Amino acid sequence: MKTETDRQIDELDYQLQDIKRKLTELRRQRPREEVSDYRLLDSEGREASLSGLFGNHNKLILVHNMGRSCSYCTMWADGFVGLLPYLNTRAAFVVTSPDDPAEQKAFAESRGWSFPMYSVAGTSLTSDLGFNDPQEGLMPGVSVFAKEPDGKIYRVGRAEFGPGDDFCPVWHFLELFPEGIDGWEPNYELPNNELPNSELLELSCCAH
């Protein structure tokens, strides 16, 4: 049975949904930005062009991760593993960080990450796209690109990451507790979980 508080919650949920629809529409109206064909480094230290990250797609989702030093970015990336097959039906998906390729590869393997990773070390990509503020430093987020038939690349969408955003559901679950987030922060080590993400994903798939 719904209480008066439940009804107030529902009303605010409806308002939030309406605001999110307006936000989505406004994001679609954001002017496209032509970007350079940046040169990154893959997990083996080989040079890779931004245009080459699209693969067989004409859309690319590129995550700006702050690297292994950030437990928050690590939690976000852990969550991308299960989303990857779905996202790849529409676009290529890669994660970038400022870590060098060897460090990046070792950390990705330790987490069981299955998505491609690229190092932006030595490039201006992160700064040029607005995720390295002169005052605040590196900021996590995502850029979405489109590649035209003539080879030109445009950024067609962007969003910043942070606690409570739409890109990591952990915060929304914790907010349902009476005490809310209550100072909680993500850790690298997960209790009662000795399998890497890739093995957990394989087990969950086999269960269906």
Question: What is the strand and helix layout of this fold?
Answer:
Elements: H1 4-28, E1 33-35, E2 39-41, E3 47-49, E4 59-64, H2 71-87, E5 92-97, H3 101-111, E6 117-119, H4 125-128, E7 132-133, E8 137-138, E9 141-147, E10 153-160, H5 170-174, H6 197-206
Classification by helices and strands: alpha+beta
| Mass-distribution shape | globular
Order of helices and strands: HEEEEHEHEHEEEEHH
CATH superfamily: Glutaredoxin
Query: What is the CA–CA distance across the termini?
Result: 34 Å
CATH architectural label: 3-Layer(aba) Sandwich
Reading off the top of the CATH hierarchy, the class is best stated as Alpha Beta
Number of helices: 6
Please give a handful of descriptors for the protein shown.
208 residues; alpha+beta; Glutaredoxin; globular
Description:
The structure is a single chain. The longest helix is centred in the N-terminal third of the chain and has 25 residues, at 4-28. Residues 194-208 have low confidence and may be disordered. The protein has a single domain, classed as Glutaredoxin. It has a six-stranded mixed β-sheet with strand order 1-10-9-4-5-6. It is an alpha+beta fold and 208 residues long. The two termini are 34 Å apart. Helices cover 35% and strands 21% of the residues. The chain contains six helices and ten strands, in the order αββββαβαβαββββαα. A hairpin with a 5-residue loop joins strand 9 and strand 10. It has helices spanning 4-28, 71-87, 101-111, 125-128, 170-174, 197-206; strands spanning 33-35, 39-41, 47-49, 59-64, 92-97, 117-119, 132-133, 137-138, 141-147, 153-160.
